[in-house]
């Protein structure tokens, strides 16, 4: 079938996209490569469609477009190619589109060099040899031939140009082979297997994706309703994914782990399951937050124990019998977190544990027995605290002990539990031996950030301690708050407070932590822990005001800010502290920030950010196929240049534009440009711009600086990316890229400020023009 006919079939509803397909993820380089292959008659592969009856296709198709009567072909393989064709030929995306329209907007073709490039105004404006491909596809070659005939100096090569125009338009008539999956035996499950086989290099499709697709067809608001629940929990400090919530709903409805159990569920049953799962999750988060002190995402952990706990709770009418049953359930949950119960084969282990709930008279006892059988022993040993950083599996346990074991703030003496801290207090991670002192003494990062060197204090106390030597500030706090130091399981042997004895200090503190952990967990098992005071419901909790959300380590804040920047580019957020796990469930390495399916999910290799990582972690990431970056700037350049494939004007373009608009550039504009150029690494805050131009606040500076970008863009006829929040052109993007950065002053206070980094092309243009 030729491309024109395929596009017509899409318009008529004879070809559609199934709901379970991922969105459009191609960038400009991939679109350009596709068109180059078509122009040169290189093979681009066949399409794969699932031909099914219209009434069944309705259950799985994406978008609001109408389907043709009889049968419909649902596109299983070829979405990226067909969407690119459609966007270029029609000048707009198809109805089923979900992605970045700029990937195929503004494609041009050079009649002389026979190459494809995206619009660059200085190079292409008023140049008849650069042809707008979409315009040609829509209007035909005639109008372009007429333009060429009006330019005598092109007459010598006119035949060559006309042949290129005809060849370019002929792309529409290229035939693509279409493989069809059809027949009564081609059930949805069979189609999923075919889809996964064809897309073996990309993200695997689960039966849960299909089940949700069918539910969305029957209940169009299903996805948005699920996301609303996730947003509620996110506001309370817990970042869950849609797939996790779907597992909890599946457990409520079917008692099964496999998503295939949802395939025949009707809308009413699903809605009821969602309601029950939401209430159970709220209850569990309140219990875990109030009883264990695990009140935000970084310390929660073990989230795939939730489907089991949700099923258990719903099966008891949403209420546990007494505090002993509740604490036994929490005991089991904590141990699933500590030993990575669901780190390996999640579905198979979930299936086993969910079946225990249905087959045993005392299911909690059996769940705990199963853990013991796998571990041999649930006793915590000192060696278990040998991990480092906030990605260590036992990090949440140190936080938990701090919250529930009457640990005291060293300066104020107040207990570090939420109801005593109050709504507007939060904790900070504190290095007992300061990082600066340990690094100076030659200790590696893994030992500097050892969890046995971490504890939690109020912000005020952490600032007061700063980077003082432990032997100094321990003695001082012992005078003002006797005994408070020891409540953090600090060995009180003074010789261990010296830098040269740091290894011995870690060993001694691990022993104390293990003793405290076993005492606490055994008390949970036997129901002997005193009742804490009541805490706010998680459903109304605001993480900023009422959670003891821990301030991250400096590296962690950098990663979180980088993740936010990635999201602003319309790309999926990465997973912080991502565990690389082998087939036995053993953690081989923890990646600081990872995209295991790539930033273009299913289309690019796994990506990781490794900040100051050890050599072994880098080697492991490399061996497992990850492309990793050790610096934020290099990572962002990769995103812009390779993933988004954004093409900005070149140096000469900027020089011409600056000269053309020079009479509209004010003195304040020039002051901001100079300040930006002379700032360290050409990076400045909006406040810095305001100070340079003597504006009262940064809002005025941003508006005026953006005005320069708008003038440049208008002169070059260049449309920058849109603002995510309002859809308007991001004019300042013409001058600089932006990102959030946490600033720490000399007194250890921190604040987040938006940073503008001048584009290299702008830097060079300003230098060449002698404007700076």
Structure explained in plain terms:
This protein is α+β, with helices and mostly antiparallel strands and 772 residues long. The strands form five sheets. It has a four-stranded mixed beta sheet. Strand 12 (607-609), helix 28 (615-623) and strand 13 (627-629) form a beta-alpha-beta unit. Helix 30 (651-660) packs across helix 34 (760-768) and helix 32 (686-693) packs across helix 33. The longest helix has 26 residues, at 267-292. Mean pLDDT is 84; it is low at 419-424 and 538-552.
Radius of gyration: 30 Å
Q: Strand order, biggest sheet?
A: 1-3-2-7
The biggest sheet amounts to:
4 strands, mixed
Tally the beta strands: 16
Whole-Å distance between the termini?
Answer: 59 Å
What shape does the CA trace take?
flat
Secondary structure: elements and pairs:
Blueprint: H1 3-12, E1 15-16, H2 28-39, E2 47-53, H3 54-60, E3 71-77, H4 79-90, E4 107-110, E5 115-118, H5 121-124, E6 130-132, H6 133-139, H7 142-149, H8 158-169, E7 178-181, H9 188-198, H10 207-218, H11 222-235, H12 242-254, H13 267-292, H14 297-300, H15 306-315, H16 323-339, H17 346-359, H18 363-375, H19 395-404, H20 418-421, E8 427-431, H21 435-440, H22 445-448, E9 454-458, H23 459-465, H24 470-480, H25 502-526, H26 543-546, H27 554-568, E10 575-581, E11 587-595, E12 607-609, H28 615-623, E13 627-629, H29 632-643, H30 651-660, H31 667-678, E14 683-685, H32 686-693, H33 698-716, E15 736-744, E16 750-758, H34 760-768
Helix pairs in contact: 4-6, 7-8, 12-13, 12-15, 13-15, 15-17, 16-18, 16-25, 17-18, 30-33, 30-34, 31-32, 31-33, 32-33
